[in-house]
Amino acid sequence: MRWLTWVLPLWFLLCPEVEASGYVKNRCGFLVEDVRTSHRSILGEDYPYWYSVGQAYAESSCRWIASKDGHGSVGYFQLTPKFLDYMLRPVFPDYTVPNHPHHFLATAYFMKTLHLRQNPTDRLWITFQLFNGGGWVLRECRRAGSFEWEDCKSHCLRGRVCVERRGGECKQYKSACDINYNYSQKVFVYGQPFRPEGEKDEWRFW
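User: That's the sequence. What structure does it adopt?
Assistant: Structure tokens below.
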């Protein structure tokens, strides 16, 4: 399969952190049960929740933080109230309260919304990139005439985005294409240490 040509090099690049040192597992282990119960209660008992634990590491290194992007994103999953309050606050009013169960449930609910309403495929990599970067990935896949990760990325023409803002001034820019397409790779790799032994994906990732 073509995805092996880039997933495996990334895996071995990150392997010392993910497997040998166990850093990600140690860092995020305390979130596993909250993520598992919340995501499976909303997305279904067959949902591969380990990818959402990996998502928490990709978003915040499994810390409850306020974002540096200038948008006020909060929590382990960096939910952004100014964009999501209309959807999440009526159902999960305490989703921005540190360590509250609503934060996990709200994240799962938003993921379900993205997967069912916006993602025309069954591929989780697209759902995670929708979470991270909005609908751009779908435009790129349409241009490519494909839902393969490498084809869609080859048609990405986005510019740079501010990833750190202080005092109203941007301190760091990065390629929007690299951020969004690396995101799904990171979620995939960071999620592996939390996959129960012998459990297979019931949802397609790539």
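Confidence is low (pLDDT under 50) at residues 16-21.
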